[in-house]
Design a protein that fits this description.
Number of strands: 11
Radius of gyration: 18 Å
Number of helices: 3
Helix content: 10-25%
Order of helices and strands: HHEEEEEEEEHEEE
Mean pLDDT: 90
Amino acid sequence: MRILLSLFLFAISFSYGQEKSEAKKFLEQFEPLEGQYFEGEIVAGGKEGDGFVGQKLLMQVKSYADREVKIPFYVGEDKSRTWVFTYSNHTLTLKHDHRHADGSPDNLTFYGGTANNHGSETFQMFPADQETCQMIDYACYNVWWITMDGSTFTYNLRRIGTDRFFSVKFDLSKPVPSDFQPW
C-alpha cells in the first residue's frame, strides 16, 4: 500500500511539473484580450458579392476559460458566426458555431477540425474532422489555421485541391469600442 501511495504522489508531482503544451500557450494568449473587440481586413480571397468584401469585420474575444475560448466574428451587421477553440489532451479544436438571428443553431454549425499536433504558441492548424466531412462533403478538404504574433490574429482557410483561400487579419494592438453581441 505504501508503495502504491508513493507512486501515486510521484505521478501527481510529475504531471504538475510538466511544461505547458504549445497549444495551451496559444490558447492562453486570449486571456488578456477577453471582452475586447478588434477590427479586421481581408488580406486574401475576398471577392465582390461574397458577403465579406466592403463589410466592417470585427472579432470579439467574448469569453476565455481554461479550456475554451469563444470569439464571435461579425461581418457588417451579421452576428451569426463564432469561432470556438477548445483544449483537450494537449491539442486544440476549432469549431464554427453558426446561428440564426433568433439564436437557434444553423443547419450547418459546429464544423471544423482538431489540430493533428501541438502546433506552436503562434500557429495552430486544423484539418477538417470526420464530423465536418459528414456534414459538408466539400469542406472535407478544408484546412484552417490561425496565427497570433502578439499584435495580430489571422484566420485562414484553404480548400485543398482548389484555388479557395480566404484570410482575414485583425490588429490586436488597437481594441475598438463596440456593443455587438452574437445572436
